[in-house]
Each structure stands twice: as C-alpha cells, then as structure tokens.
Amino acid sequence: MASISVRRLSKELTEIKSEGCPVGITLVKADDFSTWWFTIEVMGESLYQGEKYTLQFRFDSSYPISSPAVQFVVTDGHTSPIHPHVYSNGHICASILGNEWSPVLSVVAVCVTLQSMLASCKKKERPADNDRYVRSAPENPKKTRFHYDGKALSPIPHQYWI
Amino acid sequence: MDRRIKSPQIPTVNDLRVKLCYICREEEHYDAPPEDPPRAWTHPCTCTLVAHEGCLLRWIQTSQGDTARAPNALKCPQCGTRYELVSHRPKILRLLGAGNGVLQRVGRLITLCGAAGVVAVFASGIYVVLTAYGAWAIKQFLGEEMFDVLLTDNPANWPWTTFINLPSIPLSLILSRFQTPALIPSLVPILLVWPPAPPIKYRLGSTSALTDLRLQYGAADTINSKLWTWPPTPAIFGFVVVPIVRVVYRRLWTRLQVWALGAQPPSARVAAARMGGGGVNAAWEGWPVVIRIRANIIGEDGRGQGQAQVQGQEQQRQQEGEEGQEQPAPAGAEVPEQEQALAAAEQHISISASSLGRRLGGALLIPYISSRMGWLLLSLSRHSHILRRILAVRPPLSVQGTMRWPYGISPGEWEDLGPLRQVQKALGLVWRASWRGTRTWAEADPVWWRNAIGLGLFVVAKDCVELLHLWLATRELESRHVKNRDFAGVDIRELDLVPGFSPRGQSPAQMQARAQSLPRGL
C-alpha cells in the first residue's frame, strides 16, 4: 500500500488534470510525488502584470501532515517576484507554509493563496533583511523559522478548500 | 444504526452518503464495502469537515509536538472550533504532568538564578578589588595614621558611605586619564570626602544620630575659626588652589614649550583646540599629561588637517625605516619645516607611550607616587627649616597625645538649645566641617599636604623630562643627514672621475698605462 502522501498527491493530481487549475496557474511538471512545478501569474491589474513565476513544491512522505516546501524557482533564468515577503533566493515568508499549515489545504490552495499575495502587493520591494537572510539561508525553506507579522496573507479563499 | 434510532432528527458522521477525509482525502461511500480493517470516522467540529479519526489524531499529535503549531493543533482550520479530546487520563498521569510542569518552572528559575549568581560573583569580585585598591590609595595618600583614624584595617568599622567612596577612587583615577581635559581631577574626591569624616573611635562610641552629629562636627567649632590656615584646608585646596595652580601651570608650560621647541607639539595644540582654544595643556592630573588623539584631529582651519597628514606620513616613514626627511611633504607643505620635525619627534615618542597598560598603570600608581614623593619631601625637610614650615609637619597624634574628644559644645549646652537651634547649629557644624575638616583632621600631621605637593612636583618633573625627550628627539631629526662614504672598495676604473683627480700613490703615467691596457667603452 502506497504511503498516505502518495495516495493523497495522486488524488490531487487527478483532480488538477480533470478539473484544470484556477486561472493564472499552470502545472508544469509533476513526474513523481516528491517535486512539482507550477507557473503562476497574477490576473487583472497588479504590480506583477504580465510577469510569470515558477513555483516549486517538494513533498516528504508525511504530507499532508507536514507542510510542503514551497519556493519560487530562481535557477535557469527563473526569478522570484520582488515582494516584501519573498526573498531573492525564492524563499517565501507565508504563515500558511509554516505554523498555519493545515492538511485541509492543498497544492492548488497554496498556489491560489500565493497568487493573491502577489495581487494584493502595494509596493515592489524585497524584505528588509533580504541580504542577511539569503547569505545564511538553509537550502530548504522549511528549516527557516519565519516570523509572521500576521498581515502576511489574505485569508485563504474558501472555494479551494475541500 | 442504533444511534439513528435514538436521535432521528440530527444526523451524524455515519449518516453521510460520501465521507471525504479532509486530511488524506480518501472517500468512503455508504454503500461500498467497508475497508479492511475498518477505519473510524469523526466529525469533531461545527462545520462540514470530516476526517478519519486516525488521520486527525496523527495531525493533532504532530502539531502538538511543534511549538509554533501547537496553538492551532486543536482548532478546526475552517470553522475554528476547538476539538475536544476524550482520553483515559488517570489522576496519577495528570499529577505527574503537573509535577513535571512545576519542576520545569523550578528548573528555569534555577538556571536564571545560576546565571545571575555567576554575574554577581564576577561583579562582586571586581567590586572587592576596587574597594581594596581604594583603601590602599587612601592609606598611601592620607598617611597611615589618618587611615587608622578614619578607616582602620577592619572593614567592619567602615561607615556605609565608604563602600561607595572607596571603589570610586580607582574608577575616577582611570577616568581622569581617558579624558582631555579631565573633568574630575583625580585626587579631589579623596580630598573632599575624607576630611569631614569622623574618627572611627568616636563614631563607634556614639549612640544616637544627633549625638553622633554633635561629636563629629562639634570639633570645627573649637578649632581656629580662620578660613585661611596653613596648610589650606583640604576642601579649599581641592576647590580653589588646585584649579588655580592648574590654569597658571598650563599657561606657563605652554610658553615654555613654545620657547624650547619653537612651537607647541601638535598633540598639545589638539588638546588645546578641544578645550576651546584655551591654549592650555592637560597637565595636572596625570603626569604623562599629553594624551594623544590621532584619529580625529581634523581642525576647523585646515591646519590641523595638514598636521594629521604629516603625522600619518611620519608613521609610514617610521615603518619604512625613516628615510626621506629631506623630501618636502607635499600635503603638509604649509606646515613649517620645524613643526614637521616636531610632529615627527612627538610621533616617535608617543607610539610607545599610548598603550593602554601604560595609561592604566600610570593612573593607578598615582597614590603610591604621591606617597613616595611626600616621604622624600619629609626626609628633605629634616635639613631645611623652611621646607618644614611649608609642609607644616606635625608630630603624629599619638605623640601629641591630643587625640581629644572633639566636643564643640558641652552636652549641657546642647540640651539647653531649642530643637530649631539644635538643627541650625548642627547644619552650621556640618557646613564648617566640610570646609575645614574635623578637629582630628586639623590637628593631625598633614601627610596629604606633602603628598599633594610631592605629586605636583612629580608632575612638573615628568613634564620636564618629557619636554627634554621631545626636544632632543626633534633636534635629532633636524640634524639628521646621511653619512657620506668614499669609494673605497669600488674599482676606480668604473668611475667617471673629474680630469684633475689623482689618486695618492699612483703617478699619472702609471694610471695612463693601466687605462690603456683595458678595453675602452665605459
């Protein structure tokens, strides 16, 4: 019997393939159940109009009990969006990826949340401690204990909850 | 099935047609054959989310193990309802849990106390050393007799103020060395605090605060009421004589420097500029008097800037083996040649002088030096009547036999005064005592006086030696030139010599012959 993470991910993948992703989100690669890539772009008027970013999800065997490791891809010509909660190495300071992760969330829900995080941005700038963080950041963003200021993200849109 | 019969109106999780676990996302249809082994379902909150009990318990357990997530562990992510856990928790488990919590808090407290203890031990160690140094300094400066009268070797006799005064002595000595100009002359605290202090002997015998006050300060009443006495009272000396002497000495010293060196040393000018252009040198409180500040001496008039560059160059020159004195310094072109040499010489001397240890040691040795200088003056005074008068040498109190009960007013007189008059009198006595010291102080051999004079003489001597050093070093730099050698050891044929040159011992003919035998072309 496959592990919980594989069974749940295969269900999520089936759903994505049958129902498609929300507008602005595209599945790029999901060859196995450890790393998935998506592209996201912000629809409508925003500071990131016309820009496309690549998101990487990494899952361990206890997903969805443990949160996925989510970051923007910054290699091979990809860049991370300039945003007060996104570091230049692609790491994202978002509470739903840390202490507010819940198994009720899904890969698509995370994508949508990050999309709305970009959409609601008022000013394109890096986090204040970007240089210091990037210099000493661990490879896996889950190993960083981010301090969430509470206003990091808008609430998760309900329609993406199961 | 039983439940449905008992509460037909309200459905439960088991009444759902399709159950979808919000954690693992597996579904179960009511008509599908049950899993093997069957998994229990739960609906723990007030919204529509349901889950396998096993999945939910695993989620809760994992979240509770993570401090950041623990607050949300028992909360439904959708409706926020708190999950209720039912478990078998016997009293003994709860008791053990509570005990563990208490122990944890106690442990934290012990850690905190331990850290505080280490800091306290360290601090009190420093404090003890400072206090011991202060006591030693008092003994050195006021003399052993006054030390025994005022403090004694037994700290149990010391009044509580001593434990603030003594440690502050080394601190003020050191601080005075790191300020230009020093704000607190190093010895003034000693001179101001101790004279009004009552002798230990009487202080210990006194019973009430009021008697205490009367005993201590009554003395001032009976001793001469003249304000100017010889030697001056410590307070007048500290407040009036020392500042005047300092200002006069600095003026004179600046003139002497200019006369001897042709200009003030750069560091002295810097010190003067820092003091607001008073043209004085920080002189009194320590002897290595000139405190060098090299990093930020950029003057307002640009002259200081040139100076700084000259100094920088000199430093480099020193590193490179002191060549190039003849080269005019391009940046310091406006600085006269003589001053350049002076700056260089001072730099040369001060490189070794500004070390931290030298300053600290110098500051902390002040009491010892003044004591030795005082002793030297005392020895000299045996041969000079005038010196003896100047130093106001008196026999020790023990020899005088006049360690008298320092009453100012007789007890009867005191009682006759009204309370208001008593307070007035007491305040008057305190005021006078702080200016003149107690009777004991007035009658004792003024060791502090000759020590202060000795220290002053030492400062002057030290300044003179330093000036001499600076003068000689400046002269050395100014007189410096490269030693000329002849061409001994160099083959004479390799030199293009003037036609008339004729080396001794060789006739021009011989030379010509030798020259012809060699190939041409040099």
TrEMBL record, chain A:
Record keywords, A-Z: Ubl conjugation pathway
One Pfam family, short name: UQ_con
Domain UBC core: 4-159
CDD domains membership: UBCc_UBE2W
Annotated SMART domains: UBCc
Keyword Phosphoprotein part of the UniProt annotation: no
Protein name, as recorded: UBC core domain-containing protein
Organism lineage: Eukaryota, Fungi, Dikarya, Basidiomycota, Agaricomycotina
Automatic annotation (TrEMBL), chain B:
Listed SUPFAM superfamilies: RING/U-box
Annotated region (Disordered), positions in chain: 304-339, 501-522
Organism: Tricholomella constricta
An annotated Gene Ontology molecular function: zinc ion binding
Location of this chain's protein in the cell: Membrane
Polar residues biased stretches: 504-515
Membrane topology: Multi-pass membrane protein
PROSITE patterns recorded: ZF_RING_CH
GO cellular component terms, A-Z: membrane
Domain of life where this protein originates: Eukaryota
Record flagged with keyword Membrane: yes
Domain RING-CH-type: 13-86
Parts of the chain that traverse the membrane: 109-138, 230-249
Biased composition annotated in UniProt, kind: Low complexity: 306-318, 326-339
Record flagged with keyword Zinc-finger: yes
Entries under InterPro entries matching the protein: Znf_RING-CH, Znf_RING/FYVE/PHD
Keyword annotations: Membrane, Metal-binding, Transmembrane, Transmembrane helix, Zinc, Zinc-finger
Protein name (database record): RING-CH-type domain-containing protein
